[in-house]
Specification:
13 helices, protease
Length: 642
């Protein structure tokens, strides 16, 4: 039975760089009057009026100084900070992913054409522009979260985060502190996990009360064809509006063969700034490698553009699953095997030539989902006894609303600026989970945030569209430090069977077990909470979280036992049987192995014993699944045996 979701509006809040209210993704057609419980405001700015808000976009705040201005000779101009309006498209894009209205015939200059809609298109939106051109200050983030809670939001979506190199601990991280206060008021906080992958320990926003999201690709790709003068064709990843065609080929050169004088080969191969000879490059298609992370694709593009090249081919195995938007510059990114063949053609041919065709959609792409190369990985830097990231969601080549501003070289000749764009990042994955959470909330109004989080985690998908286990960007099977518990499956999460309820007391105990002084915990939480008598790090594994992580299972010591409690949200009379999936050598036992629920008995506890005497050193991954014939409730685990 389908419900009319127009009767179940929920509020959102997005910490972003503002919003472009004129986008059709934020129209309020079919949405009723704003409920009286909403306490927010629509702040005016120098380019933003109260009339820019509507029944969809119900709130907008910004935190720049209204009096502050730029001085440009004798003219004073208001800063972009002095308005809720988006100045770079990030806020508009992420907001529409989560809660954008349905918009027919949306595309990015013809690519990814179709109907655009957010994860929960009937939800309302409030924007809190906590970031400015100067960055995102901690005090402003805390102020904005506090405002959002007071205004009456249900879900906070934060697609920002610090570099993994500069993380602060939980009681010194403004996002963690503000999110804790939100959790105390049963307001869910969903955060992007960061784009510092594939390095381990690079995950950010990893406090247990935060829903931390990794990024995956989707079953659609964008590719450009590289046609060589010898008749061979190679497919390269790209979002390119090339003006080249099959009728004319251009000279083809490897970067090291068109190097500027006194330039090291390693630099010219990677198309370093000032590494190419403009006279040698002009009119040619240039091939560059991509084995120096200090020179991103955007820089390579600018280098060959500045040298008046006709196009760019980049050889990169790792990043080719994330198409680069080169605008009107003819571009393709090929893997190592194709790259070697192209370079061999250059070396073996007196006058090598090529052309690059415009990008096209590649539907039904396989395998998908896979972990994005850039998606930050766990374990968490501050504790490995909580599994992070929590979950994975689409974050590669996502079409969503954008500021329709024209940048030189970004719009195909004869086209108007697009109101939609294709972007990638965990910033795009985060609002997918936000939208999914609101979708579940629209059906289950009385569920707590931890129940919704648990429902999404225990029903997540662990297989791709080929039927095989999820893979990472290196084409190996992915593990929970890359995907969390798996890829979101919102429809399955509507009926999870059992949920793990994590309470504020669990999180307060977590802080005690982590080692914070009781007075600091009381000050941050504004409670009189008393820490348990025994406070050791390993007890963190025992808080009632919808996954299990053990940072140190000593093979020479007795087995470690973890306790969990589940709440039945399915049929009142149900019996669940446990199934263990564990790697060879790791002994995992469940007590009891059968859970029986009857009317009036909705909460039952069980224990999981882990013994690593015969297990392999390092992390061992697996799961305990409870099955009643209809529901599969999967509890993923990561156990580090030493």
């Amino acid at each position: 039975m389908l419900l009319d979701l127009r009767n179940f509006f929920e509020y959102y809040v997005f910490f972003a760089l503002g919003i472009w209210p004129e986008s059709p993704s934020f129209n309020d057609d079919g949405i009723g009057e704003i409920p009286s419980r909403w306490k927010g405001v629509c702040m005016e700015g120098y380019d933003f009026k109260k009339s820019n808000c509507n029944r969809k976009l119900i709130g907008a705040r910004y935190y720049g100084s209204i009096q502050r201005t730029y001085s440009n000779n004798m003219t004073h101009m208001a800063k972009p900070d002095d308005s809720p309006r988006d100045f770079d498209g990030h806020g508009t894009h992420t907001t529409s992913i989560a809660a954008g209205a349905k918009v027919a015939n949306a595309s990015y200059h013809g690519l990814a054409g179709g109907t655009a809609r957010g994860g929960s298109p009937s939800s309302r939106i409030a924007i809190y522009k906590a970031c400015t051109l100067d960055g995102c200050s901690g005090s402003t983030i805390l102020k904005a979260i506090d405002d959002a809670i007071k205004d009456g939001v249900d879900i906070i979506s934060i697609s920002i985060g610090v570099s993994s190199l500069f993380q602060s601990d939980y009681l010194n991280d403004p996002i963690a502190i503000g999110s804790f206060h939100a959790q105390q008021m049963d307001v869910m906080v969903v955060c992007s996990g960061g784009n510092d992958g594939p390095d381990l320990y690079s995950i950010v926003n990893s406090a247990p009360w935060i829903f931390t999201v990794a990024a995956s690709n989707i079953d659609r790709d964008f590719q450009s064809s590289v046609l060589l003068g010898n008749g061979k064709t190679f497919q390269g990843s790209a979002i390119s509006f090339s003006n080249l065609n099959r009728s004319r080929y251009y000279p083809l050169a490897f970067g090291e063969d068109v190097a500027a004088k006194f330039t090291p080969i390693s630099e010219s191969r990677n198309c370093y700034p000032e590494s190419l000879d403009t006279k040698k490059v002009a009119g040619k298609i240039v091939v560059c490698t991509d084995n120096d992370l200090n020179i991103p694709l955007q820089i390579k593009k600018l280098v060959v553009e500045d040298a008046r090249a006709k196009g760019l081919i980049v050889v990169s195995e790792d990043e080719k699953i994330v198409p680069f938007d080169s605008g009107t510059v003819p571009f393709a990114e090929v893997g190592n095997l194709s790259g070697l063949q192209i370079i061999k053609y250059i070396n073996d041919t007196k006058n090598p030539t090529a052309t690059i065709l415009p990008a096209r959609d590649v539907p039904r792409y396989r395998p998908a989902p896979t972990v994005a190369y850039f998606s930050s990985r766990g374990p968490g830097q501050y504790t490995e006894n909580i599994l992070k990231p929590d979950i994975m969601a689409p974050g590669v080549t996502i079409l969503a609303a954008m500021i329709p501003e024209q940048e030189a070289g970004s719009v195909p000749l004869g086209n108007k600026p697009s109101g939609y764009a294709i972007k990638s990042g965990t910033s795009m994955a985060c609002p997918h989970v936000t939208g999914a959470a609101a979708f579940i909330k629209s059906f289950h109004h009385r569920w707590s945030t931890s129940m919704i989080k648990s429902a999404l985690m225990t029903t997540a998908t662990i297989y791709d569209n080929t039927g095989k286990p999820l893979q990472n960007s290196s084409h190996h099977f992915a593990n929970p430090h890359e995907v969390g518990v798996g890829e979101i499956n919102p429809h399955k999460a509507l009926n999870p069977g059992l949920v793990f309820e994590t309470t504020t007391e669990d999180y307060l105990q977590f802080l005690c077990y982590y080692g914070y002084p009781e007075k600091n915990i009381r000050s941050m939480s504004k409670t009189n909470f008393n820490c348990p008598r025994i406070n050791i790090d390993r007890l963190i594994s025992n808080i009632n979280y919808p996954s299990i992580s053990i940072s140190n299972l000593d093979r020479h010591k007795p087995a470690q036992t973890i306790k969990r409690t589940v709440t039945n949200v399915g049929c009142p009379n149900a019996t669940y049987i446990s199934r263990v999936h564990a790697p060879v050598g790791l002994e995992v036992k469940v007590f009891p192995n059968k859970l029986a629920f009857i009317e009036g008995l909705t909460r039952v506890s069980f224990k999981v014993l882990f013994d690593g005497k015969e297990a392999s050193n390092g992390y061992n991954f697996g799961s305990v699944t409870w099955f009643d014939g209809r529901h599969s409730v999967r509890l993923s685990f990561a156990v580090n045996v030493e």
